[in-house]
Amino acid sequence: MTNFLSTRLELNLFDILLTIDTMLVSRKLLLTMVTMTKFERHINITSNDENIIKVLSESCQEFLLSNAMLKNAINKGALWLSRGKYTQRIRKIKKKLQTQDVLHFYYDEKVLSQPSPKATLIADLNDYSIWHKPYGMLSQGSKWSDHCTIARWSETTLSPQRPAFIVHRLDRAASGLIIIAHSKKSAKAFSHIFEHHQLQKIYQIIVHGKFPIDFDKNNGLEVTADIDEKKSKSIFFPQEFDEKNQLTLVQVKIETGRKHQIRKHATSIGLPVVGDRLHGHKEEILSDKINLQLCAIKLGFICPFSQEEKHFELPTQLTLSLNKLCKELV
Fold it and tell me: For position 215, what pLDDT does the model report?
């Protein structure tokens, strides 16, 4: 009887150990699968008229991607084609391939699963359009995708559909007005406008702190500190102050367009932009839920096609609100 119980216990212990071992193997396999969701493939095409989905499926078979998953990734901008001297993003899965073509497939499940914020059309002038880019939306994509960009949003939502060309950028964390060109001619014209500073740009920011009382209220507070060893100029006009939270709503006019110019200039005068986790003061970060309080609210320029003065301004509901922000902090 004792031998029987001993054997029974040994068998139960063996089953337990086997189960644990199986679980560990499964866990390792699961972790391996998770870490393998980002990869890239560069595929040389050796014969004409090969099917794109078939080529990708065979090349990526160890990742168990279904045809639907491949098509979804392609639609979101993960596939590129090199032909001769040129490399471009492609979405048409029925495009005919040629010998010596090279397909470049960049698959990142984390990137592809990101939802795209919704932009708002402000004006459609056929050759170009004006949009409100919300917080979190990119101006341009990467090799991994472009589905979360204002360029792709305009391509897929405008009617009739047109190509989109980025002529200037807003940081992902910033919001506000942005111009999208719809032809190479239009893109070239607006690039000239930006290059020669022939465009008026007005921004809103909300900053930590109170403006000094000894500045010229008519001409604003001018900041000319160089950025990346280049001349830069920003002019700050305080609009509203909240005593309780020590926050100020400010209008900013910039005469140059350096990277992060407004954020850097604001911090340089001791008034960092709320939500600026890059250039602001860490001790003044209000909450992880508070977005960067920087918004492009006005654009003005001479239309390169009609030669008319054009002025665009964000609707009030899309601009920054000191009152709304303070309520979020309660």
Answer: 73
pLDDT digits (tens, 9 = 90+) for 111-146: 999 999 999 999 999 999 999 999 999 999 999 999
Task: Tally Cβ neighbours within 10 Å of residue 201.
Answer: 21
Q: What whole-number distance in Å separates Cα of residue 94 and Cα of residue 96?
A: 6
User: pTM (2 decimals)?
Assistant: 0.83
298: tokens are 């006005």
For 266, phi then psi, to 5°, come to -65, -45
Q: Domain 115-196's class? A: alpha beta
- Where are the chain's structural domains? 37-112, 115-196, 200-330
**Residues contacting residue 194 through CB under 8 Å, at least 6 positions apart:** 167, 168, 257
Quote the tokens at residue 187.
Answer: 């893109």
Beta bridge partners of 249: 206, 240
Return mean pLDDT, the chain. 88
Question: What amino acid occupies position 225?
Answer: A
Pick from 90, 303, 292: nearest CA to 171 = 292
Fold of the domain spanning 200-330: Pseudouridine synthase (3.30.2350)
321 contacts 314 by C-beta, under 8 angstroms:
no
Q: Greatest CA separation found in the chain?
A: 103
Count CB neighbours of 112 within 10 A.
21
As annotated, the active-site residues are 171
For residue 202, what are the CA distances in angstroms to 140, 255, 265, 295?
22, 10, 15, 9
* Residue 278 reports pLDDT greater than 90: no
Q: How far apart (Å, rounded) are the C-alpha atoms in residues 133 and 153?
A: 10
Determine the topology of domain 37-112 in CATH.
3.10.290
In the chain, the N- to C-terminal Cα span, in Å, equals: 72
**What is the C-alpha to C-alpha distance for residues 77 and 151, in angstroms, rounded to an integer?**
12
Look at residues 143, 133, 206 and name the one whose alpha carbon lies nearest to residue 172: 133
